[in-house]
Structure formats: C-alpha cells, structure tokens
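Same chain as my last thread, 426 residues:
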Amino acid sequence: MQFCIPVLLCWRAAARPARGLMDYGTYFFTNIVSVTVFALSICLLAWQNRKIIGMRWFAGALVAGWVKLILQGLEGKAPAILTGMVANELYLVSFTMQMLGLYWFAVRKPFRHTWVFASIGLTLAIYTVLFLARVPYTGNLVNIPFLLICLASAWILITHAKPPFDAVARVTAAVLIADVGVAGYRAMLTNIRYVRPWETVDAHTDPRWIYSLAGMAFLACCMVMCFIWFLVAELEHELAEQARTDSLTGALNRRAMEEVALRETSRSIRHGNPLCMIVLDIDHFKHINDTHGHAAGDCVLKALVQQVRAMLRANDLMARTGGEEFTVLLPDTPAATGVIAAERLRRAIEELEVPFDSKSIRFTVSAGVAQLDPGQGDWENMMRRADSAMYDAKERGRNAVRADGIATNSTGLRGPAGVMQAATES
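reply #2:
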C-alpha cells in the first residue's frame, strides 16, 4: 500500500493542472519525492547485496532517472540544454541500465553485446548535435530507441527467465509493454504538438501530456516493486541452494540427494531406463588430517568434488553423504557403464595433486557401483549395495572399484571374467 500513495499523489497532481488547481512544478515535486524514496531504497538494497549484480544496475537506473526527473521539473526555469537534452539522454541511459539488470537476472551471464552500447552512444551523440542545431523532430532519436529497449527487455524476460524468476519476469514484461504503449502515445503527441524539444513549456497545461506523465510515474512504481521482487526471488533461491548443498565442497548434501534419488528412481521405473549409483570414499583420510592438518583435509575434499564434477555429464549428480564419502547418481546408465565411469574417476583422482603449504598432497579413493533393481527395493537398497561394494574394495586393498563382486584397481581387473571385464576394457 505504501507504494500506491506516491502514485495517487502524482495522479492527483496530474489531474489538477487541467482545472488550474495545481501547476506543473508541484506535480514534479510530488513525483520527485516518491522517486527519491525508491532510489534510496534500491541503492541501500544493492549495497547490502553487492554480489547481486542486477541490483547494481537497477540502482544506477533509478539514480539516473531521479536526476532526469529533477532536470525535467526545472523546465522553463533552467536552460533547455539541461531540462530537455540532458534529461532525455538520462532517460535513455536509465532504461538501458534497467535492461542490463533484467538481463543479469534472466540470463545469468555478463552482457557481451557491445554493439548495443556503441549504437546508444552514437544515437546520443547525434541527438546532442541535432538538439543544439535546433532541428525539429529530434526527440525521435530518444523515443524510438527507448521503445526498442523496452521491447528488447520484455523479450529477454519472456524467452530467457527460468524459475524462480519466471513469475516476476512475466509481470515485469507486462509493465514494460505498458511502458511502450504510454511512451508511444507520448512520442506521437510530441510529433504532433511539440516538434521542437527545446520548446515544450506549453505542454505544462496540456492534460494529455500531464496524464501520460502520471501514467509513466505509475508504471515506474510498478517497476520498482518488480525490482524488489527480483531481489526477494534471488535471496530465496540462494537460501534454497544453501539448504541443498554442502557448505564446504559445494556438492549436494544428503537431504538433496534423497530428493533427487526419489525423483530419478520414479522416472527410471516409469520409463524402464537404468539408474546407477557410485559411492566414493577417500582412502586413509584420517591419516591426511593427522599428517597435514584439517585444513589440508578440507582442500582434499574440495579438490575431489571439483575433479569429479568436471568429469560428469550435465544430468549426473554428486552429493557429500558422509565425512569423506560421496555419492554419484548416474541417470540412464547401466552398471557396466557405471563401472567404467567409476574407474575413470578413480584414475583421475589417483593422478590428482592438491597443493597445500608449498607441498602436494596425493590421495586415492575406493568406489562401489550398484544399479537400481526394482525387484530388490528402492534407491536406498541400491545405495546400500553400492556402499557395501565400496567397503569390499577397501577390504581388498583400497584404490579400487567393486561392483557385484568384481573389482578393478590400478593393475587391472580382479575377479572372474565376464561382462564387467568387457565393459572395463572397452
């Protein structure tokens, strides 16, 4: 409700000039008050959440819009270069920064389309020259790019935003499309009545001009609410990820693995696709901690996760399910292929060197592999069998892979020949 009060004040201020009850300056005063509060709030939120780059762009957009609003409110009392030219340029800059913020939330990558900045810079330079030369219809050089930026921002949100930002993205896109409608009306009004951007004082008594300004003010308030919604969605997403991941290694935690395993088990049974699990455990981890210290042990754990993740497919999942025990879930993978994957992981970890205190720490893992068998039970049964195979590998000398009573180590396969041997040698 507190966001609606400044909008109502601006709307009432916009309606009164047509009846001679309030002047143009008073309207801008009420609008500046609300935008000042919005800009300060977003700037403080951006400062408190500096890792969220999108909020920095939102803060910059509001500050640029605030300065533009002050200059525009001084129209008729200050040079037209400031109240007209600079104000319009800041308007375009503000929405460009807003687009960059929306791009960050929707795409989650840096904006690398440098031609956009070059185009906007060239447009502003040409606009400056034409404005100073007093060429009519110069305002189109700002109005048309503004409309394009709003449409591009809406397109980015609709086509790229993913959960948890899909709902706020759709609402924000609707606000941007409404911006296009109101700004398009104002552009048409400018081309019909106010073709000289350095002479728009007459618009101060035009109710169409004032009402459209009030419409833009209302949409600006809606956009600020969307900014805050984006921030809330981001923070909720971060909290959810923290609840699902191990704080030290960044791998999923046991609870998250249980949720994923339940989903993948149901999918495997429904579609008849194989599901495989690998349990990895670091050999002699206590010796590493006792010899090099717990900080070294932490480095080893993080290095293992980094190495394993680099070798997994996009749909494979890894979780830390014990102190030095990790579980890898391989959808659409039979046991024979799981053994191959486990052996490759074992070899890569055996060759890994972890730098610590000017030294290199080397370590090995033992691995157990099991495939989901609906006839024997659910994913917990599969995990118990993989865990049992992993302990079997430890009992047989460590640094080995075991599955269904067959193991491989650095010297090759140990146990009876068969399908596992063929899979490992392939």
